Amino acid sequence: MLQTGLSVNRDREVWSQTSLGWFREELGPPDIGGYPRPGVELRVIERFVSLSGREIIEIGCGDGRLTFQYAPRARRVVALDANAAEIERARAEADRIGARNIRFLARPAEGRLPGAPFDVALFTWSL
């Protein structure tokens, strides 16, 4: 029972630290596209889970804007988006910068996910 109580208290503390006021202070003004400045989302994600050496699936990766920020820390990344044009942009950028641990796939997330299982699943800025 004591372990459960400690876990609940820890979770409550983490969530209180990620309240709206903290987000406003941490995020600051968005970039020109309306997204948080580079690095901010990564810091928020890593408050909850380490991405270092992990196998990650990202659902709704778009052009890889966030993917390229965390991929250098990850062991392997599978990034999905249903928009083929966005995936082509992401693949071109991956080739340009030599990102070899990312596999970009133009497909919906429903069904069997290639490369499963994963350590971490990311789903951000997606509808």
Poorly predicted runs are 1-5
- CA radius of gyration is 16 Å
Give the overall average pLDDT. 82
Largest sheet: 4 strands, parallel
From the N-terminal CA to the C-terminal CA, the straight-line distance is 39 Å
Overall structural class, as computed from helix and strand content, comes to alpha/beta
- Count helical runs: 5
Strand percentage:
5-15%
The portion of residues assigned to helices is 25-40%
CATH class of the domain at 51-122: Alpha Beta
At the fold tier of CATH, the topology name of the domain at 51-122 is: Rossmann fold
- Could you give the order of the helices and strands? HHHEHEHEE
| The CATH homologous superfamily of the domain at 51-122 | Vaccinia Virus protein VP39
CATH architectural name of the domain at 51-122: 3-Layer(aba) Sandwich
Task: Explain this structure.
By secondary structure, the chain is of the alpha/beta class. It has a domain at 51-122: 3-Layer(aba) Sandwich (Rossmann fold). The protein is 39% helix and 15% strand. It has helices spanning 2-17, 20-27, 40-46, 67-70, 84-97, and strands at 55-59, 76-81, 102-106, 120-122. A four-stranded parallel beta sheet has the order 3-2-1-4, covered by helices on one side. Strand 1 (55-59), helix 4 and strand 2 form a beta-alpha-beta unit. The longest helix has 16 residues, at 2-17. It is globular and about 40 Å long.
Jot down its keywords.
4 strands, Rossmann fold, 127 residues, alpha/beta, 39% helix, single chain, globular
